[in-house]
Amino acid sequence: MFEIAVEESFAAGHALRGYKGKCENVHGHNYKVRIVLVGEKLNQVGLLYDFVELKKNIAEVIRSLDHKFLNDIPPFTELNPSAENIAKYFYDELDRRLAPSANGSIVHQVTIFETDTTTATYRRDPTTQGV
Prior knowledge:
With about 130 residues, this protein is an alpha+beta fold. The chain has two helices and five strands, in the order ββαβαββ. The chain has helices spanning about 50-65, 85-95, and strands spanning about 1-15, 25-40, 70, 105-115, 120-125.
């Protein structure tokens, strides 16, 4: 199994609805996001997925969130903008946006670093992975 990863960062504010504690107040983070793709085969050039194409798609998702108040951006107008939900949001967006790979590579997991020491990860259910 081959695996590639890209890390990017963005800054955004949020407030956790229904949370009792300081995180219910408006605050911000310098987030880091780590995207992992996996696959069994490399393409004819010897790549699992083109890093340039992957980074372009990640940048498009980040552009919609960077330096914004997440609670004002769908789906976070209804869904709490927790690190866990942000990880799933990136996963869903990239899974939808990435061009299908002839060699079968897929988005495997997304990790959101809310701080240097706290992360949340969303990963594909291995029973439906198909890889």
